[in-house]
Structure formats: structure tokens, C-alpha cells
Amino acid sequence: MVKVGIIGCGNISHFHYEGYERAGAKLTHFSDLRLEAAEHMASKYGAKASSDYKVLLADPDVDLVSITTISSAHKQLCLDAIKAGKGVVCEKTLTENPTDSAEIARAADEAGVFCATAYMKRFFPGMQQAKEMLADMGDIISIHARSWQPGDYWNCEINEWLLQRPSQVVRNYGGGVLVCGGSHILDLIHWLAGRPVELSGDMFVREGLDFDIRANALMNLENGGIVNFEVCWHPLTRAGYERNGWDERLEINTTKGRLDIYTVKWDTPQNNGMLLVHQDAFTGTSTEYRFPAYNPFDFEMAEMVRRFEAGEKPSPSAWDGYVVDELIAHIIKSSKKKTRLPIKWVDRS
Predict the structure, then answer these.
(1) pTM of the model
(2) Vertex 101 angle, CA 65 and 304, to 5°
(3) What is the structure's pLDDT at 349?
(4) Which of 58, 84, 170, 246 could tie 166 with a disulfide, CB 3.0–4.6 Å?
(5) Residue 35: C-alpha distances to residues 32, 56, 81, 216 (Å)
């Protein structure tokens, strides 16, 4: 049985520890700067609690560590966990820049340590089916990928908490909507279609804010396909597949057909199942695949436990986390320079 420690007991952590519990792992140690938060969770599982993560990393009753802190802390936590020989599952984004992310990935490779980046949207059953279907659908012609998420930063009053520098958004997540929402979509693009080779990006930051509320990119794929990517915090409260403001969709056009993928709101996946629609170019048929309301975090943590126990490589890996962080950095740089940029990838050495 895999013994799991959790570093960071904030809002996202419960998706991890509940997923581990359902996967049959044993939760043995919780750590948080706020000792009372760690003790609260530890009491539920008969686990240990600490306010110093190094105590958790020194615990022989911990095999695998989930890092669910703010992103600015990820680099040091990951490197220390790798040095301690613990398996790692780090919440997205892996770090706040691609150089640090590549450093983590290399360190894990050199130490032979399991190190994963937690991009849970790969684990929707409908997303897994889309991945399988694409293998028989020919070359990708184009992808239209959008994630419009509820959040009216366009019309809201810029109050005291938004005027802090850095704002709470930047402190907690390392950026605005590109990092918070776009990172998941960039991971899906990479996973489903491969790494882009060049891109042009554009971002919008409202006057008075220190983070982006809309980001776009046009990306070229290695096989000649093109990706139109957009992420936005928006004021349309009834938009989207669920009519709750969550408007996230991928349209993938290939030489043999099309896939339309509609996701559901990330933190309430128990409300509705996602939708996958396949159009076949040869028969002209259109088939809908509707899925039960599964929690993708449960599938994600179960797969992390399975791979860790089996000695398999993680997926998404730290290198996958690096890819997303490199794309984010290029979109930001392209937007600032107002020019198209080739992407020079750092690879395993």
C-alpha cells in the first residue's frame, strides 16, 4: 500500500487526498505552515501533522508526496522531495518559469524518482477516449481550444485586495487567467496533438490590475496543423455547455473527421458528465458520447498510485509540466514583443 504525504492543506488539497483515499492509498502525514490546518486533516485520517515540510520528507512512513501549495513554493519543495527520494505529484503549474521546471525534471531523471505534474483534465473518461480515437483519425488540420471561465474582472470595481502588489491572484497562482485556466488547455493541446514549434501570443491586462484576464495564441504544430487558443475570465453567467458560465471546448479537425469536446466546471464535476462528439468524414455520421459525472481527480490519483506502485513513468510527467510552462513563457514574451516566436525546447539530457 502506497503511503502518501500532503504538503499544503488549502482548497485544492482535498481533491488529492480524497482521490488517494478512494484509490486505496494510506494517508500518513499532512504538512502546512498553519499547523492547525495540518492537524485538522491529520485527525480525519489518523495521520501525523507538521508545520515544517522537511519533517514530512524525513518521515519513513511517506512514499509519495502531493504538493498542493502556492506555485511559487513548488520548485524548492519538489527538489527537496526528490533529494529525499520521495515520489512527487505536484499541482499545476509545475513552477513559475520553464527554466525551474526543466531543472526539476532533470533532477527527477537523474535521481530515478517518480515526479508528476497534476493536470487532471487528461483524466476525464471522455478525454481519454478522445486521445484513443485520434490515433485513427489521420493528421490534425486545426484545433480550436477555448476556456472561458466565470469571473467578471472586466466590469468589477478594483477594490483594495486587487490593488495590492502583487495581488492575491499573482501571489497564489503566479499569474492571471493564462496560468490559472490556460495551463490545463495547453497541456491538453500538447498531449493530444504534440508540441507546437512556433506561436504568436496576445494578452489583455485591465488598467489597475497586475494580471491578465484574456490570453490568445496562434500555434503551429510539427505536422503543419494549427491551433487557435483562447482563455478568458468573462461576465457571461449563463454561457457554456452547462449554462453556468463555464464555457470550455476543444474542436479538433483531422483528415478523417472531427472531435468536439465539451468539459464541465472543474471543481464541481459531480454535477454533470462531459460530452464528446465524433463526426466521421467518410460515413457522414455524427456520434455523441455522453459520460456519467465522474470526478477526474479520482482517476488521476488512482493512476498516479498505480504507476508509482508499478515502477512506471508518471503521466503527466515533470517534463510535461515543463512543456506547459515553456508555452506560457512564450505567449507572454510574444505578447510583449508583439511578434511571432519560434519555440526552442529544452529536452532530456
Answers:
(1) 0.97
(2) 35
(3) 55
(4) 170
(5) 6, 13, 20, 41
Euclidean distance between the first and final Cα of the chain, in Å? 33
195 Cα distance to chain centroid: 16
How would you classify the pairing of strands 286-290 and 275-280? antiparallel
- Tell me the pLDDT band of 159, cut-offs 50, 70 and 90: confident
Q: Three-class SS string for the chain?
A: CCEEEEECCCCCHHHHHHHHHHCCCEEEEEECCCHHHHHHHHHHHCCEEECCHHHHHCCCCCCEEEECCCHHHHHHHHHHHHHCCCEEEEECCCCCCHHHHHHHHHHHHHHCCCEEEECHHHHCHHHHHHHHHHCCCCCEEEEEEEEEEECCCCCCCCCHHHHCCCCHHHHHHCCCHHHHHHHHHHHHHHHHHCCEEEEEEEEECCCCCCCCCEEEEEEEECCCCEEEEEEEEECCCCCCCCCCCCEEEEEEEECCEEEEEECCCCCCCCCCCCEEEEEECCCCCEEEEECCCCCHHHHHHHHHHHHHHHCCCCCCEHHHHHHHHHHHHHHHHHHHHCCCEECCCCCCC
